[in-house]
Amino acid sequence: MGALVRVWGVAENNEAIELALRPHLLPELVRRWPPVGLARHDSPSGAVLLSRGLSNDWVIIPDLEESGDHPPAMAWDQLEQTMTAFAVQRLSHLVAVHAATIAWKGRALVVPAASGSGKSTLSLAAIDAGADVLSDEYALIDPATGRVTGWRRPIDALGSDGSLTRRDVAVDSEPLPAGLLAFIEFRTGSRNEWRPMAGAEAVSELLAGCVTAPLRPIESMDAALLVAQSAPAIKGTRGEATDAVRELLAMLE
Questions:
Q1: Is 197 exposed, middle or buried (0-12, 13-18, 19+ CB in 10 A)?
Q2: pLDDT in tens, 105-160
Q3: Helix, strand, coil % over all residues of the chain, rounded to 5
Q4: Please, are residues 105 and 64 in contact by the beta-carbon 8 Å criterion?
Q5: What b-and-e string marks burial along 17-46, b requiring 16 or more CB atoms within 10 Å of the CB?
Q6: CATH at 99
């Protein structure tokens, strides 16, 4: 086996993940590094819980399997997801909820939804409408204030031929008050059909998508309560992203 470069990512609870790759792959690893919650170190720090690398086919455990010089894009995506999950599950000062986070006139539109529910498409439509996208993946909530920021990462845009293009369009923002919680998902042939939600229902739905809840239940509940108290919530389905964004941003006003 050839030489590997080893980098350790230390989460906010001091647990670490080791990444071992061919030297020429390090710039791409740095480009995909989580924007929050994982400090990069050149020597071990904290308890190392995971060790990951890349072959020419997929994600591997380095030193046990042959590392590759030309890993495919899907392997990079999976490694990035592994680092992301490791970091967000161990945040100590913010609470992470699976959600697109869109900034509009000083407030945040938070769209909680699982992967594959149309968050990325909605986020790109929001940019076209003049809004700022803070994240298409996680809303980060301060459990002390209820204010919201985003997990900044490139958005994967699906082309007409089925290919994915990474668009680095998300931006950083100061923490914003939540202006609207939209528990909506895209269904082919659907229209924008949603209903108001009671606060207790919104809290329950937020907690269901909160990845920090298992390890930090009290802070996660505090964050969900504050956001649900400060912003109205709706639930339902949406039609095409352009029309849905237009209505959602109007509701923020």
A1: buried
A2: 999 999 998 776 778 889 999 999 999 999 999 999 999 999 999 999 988 776 66
A3: 30, 35, 40
A4: no
A5: bbbbbbeebeeebeebbbebbbbeeeeeeb
A6: 3.40.50
Q: Are residues 248 and 151 in the same domain?
A: yes
For the beta carbon of residue 129, count every other beta carbon within 10 angstroms: 15
User: Rounded to the nearest 5°, which phi and psi values hold at 63?
Assistant: 75, -20
Give backbone dihedrals phi and psi of 44, rounded to 5 degrees, phi first. Answer: -60, 140
Same structural domain, 244 and 153: yes
Sequence-distant (6+) residues with CB within 8 A of 76 are 28, 32, 54
- The total number of structural domains that make up the chain: 2
pTM of the model: 0.90
- The CA distance from 223 to 148, in Å, is 10
